[in-house]
Specification:
By secondary structure, the protein is α/β, with parallel strands linked by helices. Helix content is 43%, strand content 13%. Helix 1 crosses helix 3, helix 9 packs across helix 11 and helix 9 runs parallel beside helix 12. The chain binds nicotinamide-adenine-dinucleotide and uridine-5'-diphosphate-glucose. It holds the Pfam family UDPG_MGDP_dh_C.
């Protein structure tokens, strides 16, 4: 029986391994982590992450051929294939701070694998890493491993998106495997290919050299984020000219060379990957003497930051240039719908912007806890991407932040509502009831273009929707910087 061990029971390690286990009943899969709390949660009825369909997959194979454990060394030693899916945060100190990937967790994982392995291993990079990481990992494994124990390193980046992870894993657009072009390297690629081939059609399993696989992951995320920044840049111009960004995106996306997906204007992209991976790409370009290329990709992040601050400015300027002491309801805190993940969510920057202008912020999200919101609003930049048990403990709660149990409570007595996540339930709220409970004039700032703005205007709201023709009220307000 082939044995697989995965280091890191997070958003990638957990769902990915659960799907491998369910698709390969004759393979034993053990997911291990240094966080006992995370492993306990994976072994309980309340999984540590919210992902549609995940509970069902885990229930089908946990205890059969899928196991979660903190006994890291034992399971690494017993495995034939070791996936490494640990955090690769942005460095906050020293060389490359604010851009380069921090490979501390990866390096310690590699040293541990080298120290405990008593038989040959295929070590698979599942985390997103800088190009050439495999070379560094190979050196660590080969210099620290026992005599006679061989390692083959593969790059197998993950392309799942949160909220649709199970669907993406069951039916991926492609699986990418990079390996050494040596007989040993080819055998390792084939061993991993055999696992995926149980459910992924052969033509969707791409094999490349190691560096192409590592770089393709960064490139794919940069291209995706670039589309969002492109449509968001257009949204600002739409507001200035009376064009409608949805109509523009539809017309542009109808060109089959461009395609319709990933062109939804928004308050900005979030999530643990896009910004981190582009910063990483920028740093690699700079290190390779390519400042023009680095600057090109930096713009994707700059436009994203601009979009978030533009949104905050719009809120404040619409409300007579001050939100001091005013209650603002924030509907949605997760970085997208169908996840409880808040890493790099635009809601953090928007809330901080409103708090900076002394607003009282009342937040509702169906999947995010009060503790998480308070932590997110008080944590330093990039601290969020370290293992939870290593993050700063119990920050002081921010007094002007309130967390509500539903949208109606959040909006009661508020002067304005900001919709920051596109949860389906926000489309069908009783907005007449909400209007009745709010201060007047009552504003809705739709950062995800989910509400029917005409209906809301009929109720009496002043509505701002990203990239849509402006309400007369908003047009008369001072120009937004
Ligand atoms: N989240 C996504 O949608 C996504 C998608 C594709 C790729 N990625 C990449 O995958 C990697 C993991 O991301 P994630 O979202 O799953 O992160 P995560 O924080 O949810 O999970 C990482 C886990 O690794 C554990 N860990 C850290 N060091 C360890 C060690 N030495 N041994 C065992 N466990 C260890 C942590 O405790 C944590 O539970 C990152 O490189 C990320 O960029 C993420
Ligand atoms: O048209 C769009 C599409 C997305 N978003 C936003 O972009 C962010 C990222 O969304 P998405 O890409 O769907 O989720 P992630 O889970 O971050 O997935 C991305 O990042 C992962 C981690 O690397 C990759 O594996 C995935 O392929 C890649 O889509 C979210 O804030 C979305 O709201 C928009 O604003 N407009």
């Amino acid at each position: 029986m082939v044995k697989i061990c995965c280091l890191g029971a997070g958003y990638v390690g957990g769902p990915t391994m659960a799907v491998i286990a369910v698709k390969c009943p004759d393979v034993e899969v053990v997911v291990v982590d240094i966080s006992t709390a995370r492993i306990d949660a994976w072994n309980s009825d309340t999984l540590p992450i919210y992902e549609p369909g995940l509970d069902d997959v885990v229930r089908r194979c946990r205890g059969r051929n899928l196991f979660f454990s903190t006994d890291v060394e034992k399971h690494v030693d017993e495995a034939d294939i070791v996936f490494v899916s640990v955090n690769t945060p942005t460095k906050t100190r020293g060389l490359g701070a604010g851009k380069a990937a921090d490979l501390t967790y990866w390096e310690s994982a590699a040293r541990m694998i080298a120290g405990v392995a008593r038989s040959d291993k295929v070590v698979v990079e599942k985390s997103t890493v800088p190009v050439k990481t495999a070379e560094a990992i190979e050196k660590i494994l080969n210099h620290n491993g026992r005599d006679g124990v061989g390692f083959q390193i593969l790059s197998n980046p993950e392309f799942l998106a949160e909220g649709t992870a199970i669907q993406d894993l069951f039916s991926p657009d492609r699986v990418l495997i990079g390996g050494r072009e040596t007989p040993g390297g080819r055998r390792a690629v084939q061993a991993l290919k055999d696992v995926y081939a149980r459910w992924v059609p052969e033509e969707r399993i791409l094999t490349t050299n190691l560096w192409s696989a590592e770089l393709s992951k960064l490139a794919a995320n940069a291209f995706l984020a670039q589309r969002i920044s492109s449509v968001n840049a257009m949204s600002a111009l739409c507001e200035a000219t009376g064009a409608d960004v949805a109509e523009v995106a539809y017309a542009v996306g109808k060109d089959s060379r461009i395609g319709a997906k990933f062109l939804n204007a928004s308050v900005g992209f979030g999530g643990s990957c896009f910004q981190k991976d582009i910063l990483n790409l920028v740093y690699i370009c700079e290190c390779n003497g390519l400042p023009e290329v680095a600057n090109y990709w930096k713009q994707v992040i700059k436009i994203n930051d601009y979009q978030k601050s533009r949104f905050v400015n719009r809120v404040v300027s619409s409300m007579f240039n001050t939100v001091a002491g005013k209650k603002i309801a924030v509907l949605g805190f997760a970085f997208k719908k169908d996840t409880g993940d808040t890493r790099e969510t635009p809601a953090i920057d928007v809330c901080k912007g409103l708090l900076g202008d002394k607003a009282k912020v009342s937040i509702y999200d169906p999947q995010v806890t009060e503790d998480q919101i308070q932590r997110d609003l008080s944590m330093s930049k990039f601290d969020w991407d370290h293992p939870v048990h290593l993050q700063p403990m119990s920050p002081t709660a921010i007094k002007q932040v309130f967390v509500a149990w539903d949208a109606y409570e959040a909006a009661k007595d508020a002067h304005g509502i900001c919709i920051l996540t596109e949860w389906d339930e926000f489309k069908n709220l009783d907005y007449a009831r909400i209007y009745g409970s709010m201060q007047k004039p009552a504003f809705v700032f739709d950062g995800r273009n989910v509400v029917d703005s005409e209906k809301l205007r009929e109720i009496g709201f002043i509505v701002y929707s990203i990239g849509k023709p402006l309400d007369a009220w908003l047009k008369d307000m001072p120009v937004v910087a």
